[in-house]
Amino acid sequence: MKEIFKNALKSSYSYQDYRKIIADLLKEGKTSGATQTEALVNYSRLNETRMDRLDKTMAVDEAIISKLKSIQSQHIWLVIAEGWCGDAAQLLPIFNKMSEVSDHIDLKIVFRDENDELMNLFLTNGNKAIPKLIILDKNSLEVIADWGPRPKGAVELIQNYKEKFGVIDDTIKAELQMWYLHDKGLSTQKEIIELIFS
Q1: What is the per-residue pLDDT across 26-36, written as a single tens digit (0 to 9) for each?
Q2: What ranges in the chain are assigned the alpha helix state H?
Q3: Is the dihedral of CA 51, 57, 61, 65 positive or negative?
Q4: Which residues are 106's β-sheet partners?
Q5: How far lies 141's CA from each of 13, 73, 101, 137, 186, in Å?
Q6: How far is the C-alpha of 154 from the C-alpha of 172, rounded, in Å?
Q7: Is 36 left (phi over 0), alpha (psi -120 to 50) or beta?
Q8: Which of 39, 120, 137, 148 could form a disulfide with 132 if both were Cys (CB 3.0 to 4.6 A apart)?
Q9: To 10 degrees, what angle do helices 86-101 and 170-183 make?
Q10: Could you say which DSSP state residue 136 is in?
Q11: What is the pLDDT of residues 18-54, one digit of tens each?
């Protein structure tokens, strides 16, 4: 497993570099990942706007800040994502803001389709659901915790809709974005802190 982490980290990016790669791909009319469709490119474009907004407006809760500052060991927060993923667009800015609070957190992002071995270690109900946050001890590369692809409230929203209507369609995708908007990143921040300090 450590070899898989080492290989993934060799092909990982900082948050700023990840944002630049996605922006550069969009200039060419492309998105990240193995599959290229007009719909995925459009999602990617929408996500850029979302992330720009969240980079400006997202705030880390005061109680969470003090917890993050109390982390003693060195962490790598390794995130599996893709530019077209709506949940990644909502959550990466939160991970980034949280990592900026602590000198002990090094945020690294990898692309799912380029890291199949890593993704297969962190499936959700047998699926390659992203984003996936893997919290590693920087020195030993031991897994401290993993989280994702969504906060619990968002998971429940999707599950309830799917049980009722049998599909994930544009209606629930819009509802999910509204859920994220109202939540302001608090659920994600709290769930990650609980994992680290449990």
Answers
A1: 999 999 999 99
A2: 2-10, 15-27, 38-57, 62-69, 86-101, 116-121, 152-165, 170-183, 186-197
A3: positive
A4: 76
A5: 17, 12, 21, 5, 27
A6: 11
A7: beta
A8: 148
A9: 20
A10: E
A11: 999 999 999 999 999 999 999 999 999 999 999 999 9
